Structure to design on (275 residues):
């Protein structure tokens, strides 16, 4: 019964054709007045294998790790995976200015807020 | 008593769910890749892979976000210890919405299948992976035996 549910869900997913194990990366999310900053842990993923997609208010992160192997494995505690996670982003994000950097296996994603969404201090005019 | 029986039924339902989860877990485990959620006690942190490449071992460890200053590797004979400290600092001026990555210090001791020459070990850190090349000690190296 449990299995039936799973098949139903899998049908719509593009990834069902791929045999790579999917893993949810852990993230930290920060915010200041100018942007939302996201840090995602993706050890072993190189920058060519990361895709960041923002569509219709949904941010999708995907990073594929393909490890180089050689010799006989004495033990293997981790392997090739696809790090994948989706977030909903507020309308106020300026999608064109989103940028990302990758350092030490951590993806840092900067999501700048559009001008209109930034907090403003209203000056009170002396009457 | 009847009430008890339905309790037991419910319990078995729950166990069925549990078993389904476990079955899948072992599937994942057999493929021996990636995270096995809830199964982390099998491996310590950081997780490692070890390959035997003939004259040396290659060890790869997952250490996302760590710089080389945060890591210590100690080797003696066939004993290897990886220790380090990970600190997550909130960037200045930012508020935290979600903090899933924790600060922690860790030590993991591993026993290698053979002695290594600790003087010739090299280590590289790239993309959050620490790679150690561990040359086997002379006695542990594979040898070609000539047949007389």
């Amino acid at each position: 019964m449990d299995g039936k549910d799973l098949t139903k869900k899998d049908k719509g997913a593009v990834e069902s054709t791929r045999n790579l194990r999917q893993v949810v990366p852990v993230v930290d999310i920060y915010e200041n007045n100018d942007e939302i900053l996201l840090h995602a842990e993706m050890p072993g993923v190189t920058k060519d294998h990361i895709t960041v997609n923002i569509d219709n208010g949904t941010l999708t992160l995907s990073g594929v790790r393909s490890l180089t192997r050689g010799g006989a494995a004495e033990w293997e505690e981790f392997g090739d995976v696809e790090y994948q996670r989706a977030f909903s982003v507020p309308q106020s994000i300026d999608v064109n200015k989103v940028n990302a950097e990758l350092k030490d296996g951590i993806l840092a994603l900067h999501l700048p807020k559009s001008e209109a969404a930034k907090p403003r201090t209203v000056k009170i005019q002396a009457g | 008593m009847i009430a008890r029986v339905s309790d037991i039924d419910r319990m078995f339902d729950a166990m069925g769910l549990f078993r389904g989860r476990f079955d899948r877990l072992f599937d994942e485990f057999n493929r021996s890749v990636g995270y096995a959620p809830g199964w982390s006690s099998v491996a310590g942190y950081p997780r490692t892979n070890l390959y035997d490449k003939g004259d040396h071992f290659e060890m790869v460890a997952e250490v996302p976000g760590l710089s080389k200053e945060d890591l210590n590797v100690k080797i003696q004979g066939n004993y290897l210890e990886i220790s380090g400290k990970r600190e997550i600092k909130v960037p200045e001026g930012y508020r935290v919405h979600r903090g899933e990555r924790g600060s922690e210090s860790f030590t993991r001791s591993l026993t290698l299948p053979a002695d290594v020459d600790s003087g010739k070990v090299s280590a590289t850190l790239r993309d959050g992976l620490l790679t150690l090349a561990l040359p086997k000690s002379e006695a542990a190296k594979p040898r070609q035996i000539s047949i007389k």
